[in-house]
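Following up on my earlier message about copper (II) ion. Here are the inputs again, as you asked, copied directly from the submission form:
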Amino acid sequence: MKTRALLLIPALVFFSAAAAMAGAAPKSAHADIMDAKGAKVGTAKIKAVKDGVQISVKVTGLAAGDHGIHVHTVGKCEGPAFTTAGGHFNPTSAHHGMNNAADPHPHLGDLPNLKVAADGKGSATILAKGVTLGDGANSLFHEGGTALVIHAKADDYMTDPSGNSGDRIACGVISK
Ligand SMILES: [Cu+2]
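Thanks, got it. Here's what our run produced:
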């Protein structure tokens, strides 16, 4: 009886550690956004909220105007073209853009255009609905991670696969 009780202790410790790990979804995340030359041009602060995640993005030194910005499906930013970030984060196999005529839409990674002023600065606080920081397919930390990508042109919110938003000009891996 004594031996059996002693054997149970490590088992209990193991199971409670495993339970604690499974329950430990991060509450926040961040990204350093780099341009094609590897210079830092912005940051994103991300936190879990009721309906998804809130992304607060701040950039500097970009061309004035509206820029497409999306969560892409691979957490890898290799300049200058950033193709390593893959396509848009799209775990629901949807069409691109909130105004796409085809259903379902949009991608979970679709976000409103980022406005950059004449001084090259821009900032926005965006709700990405349905996205999580926890486990599962809708998580920014799904296998391989995700990245925040900024494009040269505005997203038209309807054209597959990326809203005709042009080249990828900056990219940041979303990190814990
Ligand atoms: Cu994109």
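One observation from looking it over: The helical segments are 2-22. Hope that helps, and feel free to reply on this thread.
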